[in-house]
Amino acid sequence: MDDAERAAAAVLPPEVRDFIAGGSGRERALAANREAFDRVFVTPRVLRDVSGCGTEAVLLGRPVRMPVAIAPVAYHRMVHPDGELATARAAKAAGVPFTVATLSSVPVEEVTAAGGSVWFQLYWLREHGRSLELARRAEDAGCEALMLTVDVPWMGRRLRDVRNRFALPAGVRAAHLDAGAASAAHRPGGGSAVAAHTARAFSPALTWSCVEELRAATRLPLVLKGVLAPEDAVRAAESGVDAVVVSNHGGRQLDGALPGLDALPAVVEAVGGACEVLVDGGVRSGTDVLTALALGASGVLVGRPPMWGLAAGGEDGVRRVLDLLACELGDALGLAGCAGTAGARRLRTVRLPQPGPQPGPQPGP
After folding, report:
1. 20 to 30 Å CA-CA from 214: which of 4, 229, 331, 359?
2. Which residues contact 340 (CB under 8 A, 6 or more apart)?
């Protein structure tokens, strides 16, 4: 995955790479997402028959080739002209779901027409009737699930974008929000034009009543993305939500928010199987997927790695990223003594303390 990121960096404009790679504030939460995976170790089992080891699983009641979905990421056409269409086709070939974002640069109908398993990510808009219209539009287009993002009343202060005065390139637009070619997201000002654009569109008044309204309005499985507190996960299950994604938004919202992997065990325990629990933030290898499963996750979402693959090689680049993830997961499962993904959930884990500076000599009395 690091190779894919380096290949993407070689072809992307620096401000676009910063938009994808960056986090909010001092990027503590962004760094902590990776550090959380680096602190967790699994205890492999031995003398198990893994000759038929497979990566297959079930997410939201549907079979997948591995317990991975592509997370919603805005504006794929920023990095490649085929945009979300290329990513969706690669996801179909890999047998994993692709999540179309509200801020997709390709309309949902065109993405679902490419086939495969497609989920739709929804931001709650200031005109909440438009949110319900988008949900119905996704359902009519053939999406298999709705994913409501609940941790973005407005975009976090992403300082790379502020310093770059980041604005959308010409020809890239939010296909579900903007009728014309230009919007506030295209007009650079004193900070991030994309943040200014979404501040006008997103509602900071999203509450549990909105979740209940959405639940009543759709027959699709409903997922809440951006849950970290066990109490919120329990409330979600009680509201009829089918799954939660334990997530700090890739370190892009509250800087200093708990990493999803660290929050995961408490959320899994709290919901007690009442809904599925997925996790995202910092997943960069098949071993990371194994770790998430061992901590109780149903599966993971990956966001940045497919974007690096898309930038570096279009559809083929995304396929290589997903093929690599599947290969690494199969390798990790077998070496851990698991004949399949269900076995990974029975592995013991050990969380080692984060390395830090060692105390020096103490002064005498």
Report:
1. 229
2. 53, 54, 55, 56, 333
